[in-house]
Amino acid sequence: MRILKISWALFILLNIYDVIISAIYWLKMGITFEENYFIWNYYYYHEWNIPFTLALLMLISVKLLFFTGVYWYTRLFDLFKVGKYKWLSLLPFVVLSILIDTQNTFILLSTF
After folding, report:
1. Distant-in-sequence, close-in-space partners of 66: CB < 8 Å, separation ≥ 6
2. What's the rounded Cα separation, in Å, for the pair 67 and 28?
3. Pick from 18, 43, 17: which is nearest to 30 by CA?
4. What are the pLDDT digits (tens) for 58-102?
C-alpha cells in the first residue's frame, strides 16, 4: 500500500510540474507544448489566438480528465482481485509522465 501511495504522489506531482512548465512556456513563447486535441482544435478554429487563462484552464481540465481515467483504470485491479499489484498499473503512467516532463524541461531550457 505504501508503494501505491508513493506512485500516486509521484504521478500527481509530475503532472502538476507539467502544467507549471507549460504555463511558463506559454508566458515566454506564447504557445503551449501540450499536444492534445482540445487545445489544438481551439487554436485551429480561433486563428492561433488563445488567452493565457483559457489555455491554463484547458491544461488543468485535461489533466483532471486524465487523473479520472487513470483512477478508474487502477480500480480495475480491485475488480480482478489483484489489488496488491495495483501500483503496477500506475507504473506506465509515471514513466510516461517522467519522459514528457524531461522533454518539456529540455525544450524550455533550450529556448533561453
Report:
1. 15
2. 27
3. 43
4. 778 888 888 888 888 888 888 888 777 888 888 888 888 888 888
Q: Which amino acid is at 12?
A: I
DSSP run (H or E) holding 49 = none
- Helices 37-45 and 52-79, packing angle to 10 deg: 150
Cell, residue 17: 510540474
Q: Which residue has the cell 507549471?
A: 20
Q: For residue range 41-65, what is the model confidence (pLDDT) as tens digits?
A: 766 676 666 777 777 787 788 888 8
Contact between 11 and 70 (Cβ < 8 Å): yes
